[in-house]
Structures are given as C-alpha cells and as structure tokens.
Amino acid sequence: MNGRKITSEEAEKSLLKAPEKAQRGDRLNFEDGLALYNCRDIWRLGRLAEQITFDRVGRNVYYSINRHINYTNICRINCRFCGFSRRPGQADGYVLSVEEVAEQARQAHQQGATEVHIVGGVHPELPFNYYRLIVEEIRRACPKLHIKAFTAVEIIDMAQKADLSMDEILMQLQEAGLGSLPGGGAEILSEEYFRRACPDKPGPEKWLAVHAAAHRRGLMTNATMLYGYIESPAERIEHLIKLRKLQDESLRNGKGRFQCFVPLPFIRPHEKPGEPSPATPDDDSTDVLTDLKTIAISRLMLDNIDHVKAFWPMLGVKLAQIALCFGANDLDGTVQQYRIVEKNRDNTTNSLSAEQIRALISETGRTPVRRDAFYRPI
Ligand code: SF4
User: Fold this and answer.
1) Per-residue pLDDT tens over the stretch 273-317
2) Which residue owns the Cα nearest ligand 1 atom 2?
3) Which of 62, 65, 248, 375 is the most exposed place for a label (fewest CB within 10 A)?
C-alpha cells in the first residue's frame, strides 16, 4: 500500500487551489489529486470536471457499434481479483478456434459493427501463430473492420512464446491487420500493488513498455485503471500520473498515443471452484461516490488524454449515464457480449442497441456521436 499521505492542512490548501488550477489549464500534481479525493462537495467536483470536458473536447458523447470477443478464458496467471479466468484443465474453460473468432467478427460486421475488441486469458499453449491468424482471418473476411486486440500481458506472452521482441510482435500483428491495442491489464501501476494483487503478472513497467512500444509504432492504445480493490487513493493518483507522463512522451514523438482512459470499478467475482477467495473488500463493488470521484479526478488529472470512458458493462448503465455529468465523454458501444465480469451493477444486459445508447446520452443534454475507432464521427 502506498504510504504517501498529505496532512489535512495540505489537503485543504490543495482543495482550494485545485479547481482554480484546473480551470486555468495548469497541471494538477499529486497533492491536488489526493485533495480532490478528500473533497466532500461531489457536485462541485462534478461541475468542474464537466466544464473542463466541455472546454477541452466539447459537448459530444461518443459511442461505437462494436463487439467484444473473448477467445479464451483459460489463463496461466492467477490474478486475485479476476473472476473471468479458468485454470488450464478446469471444466468450464474454453478456447475459440481462429475460425470461430473470425466468424463472430464477421457476424458483428454484418450487423453494423465497425470495431471488434478481442482479449482473452493468457493461455499456456496457444502459439503466436494463433493470434496472428485471428487478425489475418478477420482482416481477410472484413477488410474495413477495425481490430482492437490483445492487452499488454498477451503481447508479452506472445513475445516470450515466439522468442521475439515486443516490437517484432507488434510489427507482425500490425502487418496482419491489427489496428490498435485495448488498455486492459494496467490494474494499478505500482510494483507493490502487483505483488499483492497479481504477483504472477508481468509488472507495471512492462505494461508501460508495451504501450510505449505500440505508440512508437504509431498504434493508438487505451489505458485502464482497476480501482476499488486493495489500492489507496494515493496509488490511484500515482497511476494517473504515470499514464500522463507516458502520454507526454508519446505526444512528443508524434506517432501513437493513448486515446481514451477507462476507469474500471472492481466487482467481486464469484468464488472460483477449488481456489481461495480473493482478498476483497467486504462489499461486492466500489461505492458510487468513489466511482464518480474517480471519473471526475481522472478527467482533471489526465490533461493530455482526450477521452474518458464510462464503461457501462462494469459501471452499470444507470451509473454510466450519470458519469457523463462527471467528466466522461464516451459511453463505449453496443458491446454485444461481455464475459470479463459475471455481473454488472444493475444487472443489465450485456448488450445495448445504438438507439438505447443515443437515448441515454441525449437525456443528459449532450450530443450522441457515433464514432469510428479513432473518434471520427461516422
Ligand atoms: S486478469 Fe487477465 S491475466 Fe489476470 S487472471 Fe484474469 S485473464 Fe488472466
């Protein structure tokens, strides 16, 4: 757990300064971010984040017609917060064939999807060729469909299996048709957190290195933050500052960058058969004030990442809609199938229609804009 704390006096001072700094366009520092987490006036924080959103990126709220495909739930890494993965040999583990993944993508494209989001567990045996063929097959079947695929840990695993550098893996996937990387697996970018929450997973520096390499290759990526598990607010702020720092470097290089930040609330998984309960808080998930503060503070701290997503499959549809008034400007998309968590907040479906998404956005007084993978209006 991160030990950095600020005194109540410092918090009070930062709390007074932070809104002014944000409004002036000055960069918020660690103390400012932490002070904002201590802020009890949630409405003031929300109004500030919303105003900064309008000033920086306008009043549009983006969504896409997309499809999530999870090609396997078998994973050799055993993150303690994960309810999705199954150990090799477990009865309800599955692996989709290359053809099955491509067929799901083809069906989604026929139904109007412009983007697929493909991630899975770190399967111990699938060779690099499997992943490359998935991309090649989809590209062949649907030349115009954007392929956003494989989190940093999957890229690292491919590099290890193929005995190639990350750069070579990214190059080969790009040649096969990969369009961008999703932002999963960042969790909380702290060595100490990884040691406690996911000790078998390649550490935070590796996650950052994959995204830096992708940006250097001109790939756009996203960044997530899994909050509400065992981290402190200070660790969340440090996570945001690390992302902001990498984004500064990537923007200087002028090629790829983070397009969107996606805060993901921890949702307690059902117990995995035969495995110890994960070390979780008592509750099933984070409290609503933490969710809304996290959205707003992300918007204020990440002054160089344009888009903040309210990811409704995990926040729940109702809270995701409110998050649009707290600094979010992206409601993800139709999704169609989301297997990473077993349930979401309001037990809604795993799929929303474009009409439902547009209505949710319009009710907040914002303009719904269907986007492509690079936030260009369609
Ligand atoms: S979070 Fe990802 S890497 Fe960790 S156990 Fe789950 S599927 Fe595997």
Assistant:
1) 555 555 555 456 688 999 999 999 999 999 999 999 999 989 999
2) 121
3) 248
128 domain-assigned: yes
Task: List the CATH number of the domain containing 98.
Answer: 3.20.20.70
Structural domain includes residue 31: no
**Side-by-side strand order, sheet with 180-181:** 66-70, 115-119, 146-149, 180-181, 220-227, 258-265, 307-308
**3-state helix vs strand vs coil in the chain, percent to 5:** 45, 15, 40
Among protein residues, the one whose CA lies closest to atom 7 of ligand 1: 121
- Where in the sequence is the domain holding 282, given as residue range(s)? 58-370
Q: What pLDDT shows up at residue 333?
A: 86
Region 316-336: mean pLDDT is 92
Kindly report the number of other CB atoms within 10 A of residue 267's CB atom. 23
51 alpha carbon – ligand 1 mean position (Å): 36
SS3 (DSSP) at 235: helix
Q: Hey, what amino acid is at 38?
A: N
Nearest ligand 1 atom to alpha carbon 121: 7
Q: What is the 3 state secondary structure string of 66-127?
A: EEEEECECECCCCCCCCCCCECCCCCCCCECCHHHHHHHHHHHHHCCCCEEEEECCCCCCCC
Q: What is the DSSP letter of 278?
A: P
Q: How far is the CA of 122 from the centre of ligand 1 (A)?
A: 7
Measured between alpha carbons, how far is 120 from 237 in angstroms, rounded to an integer? 28
Cα(67) to centroid(ligand 1), Å: 20
Q: Which DSSP letter does residue 280 get?
A: -
Cα 293 to chain center, whole Å? 17
Tell me the whole-structure pTM to 2 decimals: 0.92
Q: Relative to the CA of 76, which ligand 1 atom is closest? A: 8
- The secondary structure of residue 325, as a DSSP letter, is T
